[in-house]
Amino acid sequence: MINFFLVNDRLYFVDLPGYGFANVSKKVRSKWGPMIESYLRDRTPLKLTLMLVDSRMPPTESDVLMKNWLDHYRIPNVIVLTKADKISRNQLQQVLRTSIQTLNTKEIIPFSAVTCLGKDQLLNRIQTAIDIPQ
């Protein structure tokens, strides 16, 4: 299922199904790939893709494949390391280094919904993306 959220009658945030740890059957998950790919590839007004990665574990093979796929199709993307409040600062620094290398990116935002770490940085990045003239 793709969920659409209209924000301020101006833009949509779209939540695509998770490809990593969702608790669904393999049959259901196998249908997600084509649905996600066609949505991302064929969505002309798409300004930015936020790829949510759990900071408590290293990026998975699925994370690497998704990041490579987004880059291959030149789909603007940012990695958001979620649950950053659940690990120590030292662990977060290590996760950032590992993620930068593993996902071949420089644009990673550590984020915590609990402490609001990264909130302003993420909102600024989104604002920058949507202000780009078409």
Regions with little confidence, pLDDT below 50 for 5+ residues: none
Q: What percentage of residues falls in helices of 4 or more residues?
A: 40-55%
- What is the CATH topology descriptor? Rossmann fold
Biggest pleated-sheet summary: 3 strands, parallel
Which strand order does the major sheet show?
Answer: 3-4-5
Report the average pLDDT across residues: 86
- In CATH terms, the superfamily is P-loop containing nucleotide triphosphate hydrolases
Report the top-level CATH class: Alpha Beta
Structural class label: alpha/beta
Determine Rg (CA atoms, Å). 15 Å
Number of strands: 5
Approximately how much beta-strand content do the residues carry? 15-25%
Number of separate helices: 4
So, CATH architecture? 3-Layer(aba) Sandwich
Q: Estimate the global geometry from the Cα principal axes.
A: globular
How many domains would you count in the coordinates?
1
In terms of topology, how is this protein built?
Blueprint lengths: L2 E5 L3 E5 L10 H16 L7 E6 L6 H12 L4 E6 L6 H14 L5 E3 L8 H12 L4
Parallel strand pairs: 3-4, 4-5
Antiparallel strand pairs: 1-2
Short description:
The chain has 4 helices and 5 strands. It has about 130 residues and is α/β, with parallel strands linked by helices.
Q: Can you put this structure into words, describing what you see?
A:
It is built from 4 helices and 5 strands, in the order E-E-H-E-H-E-H-E-H. The protein has helices at 26-41, 61-72, 89-102, 119-130; strands at residues 3-7, 11-15, 49-54, 77-82, 108-110.
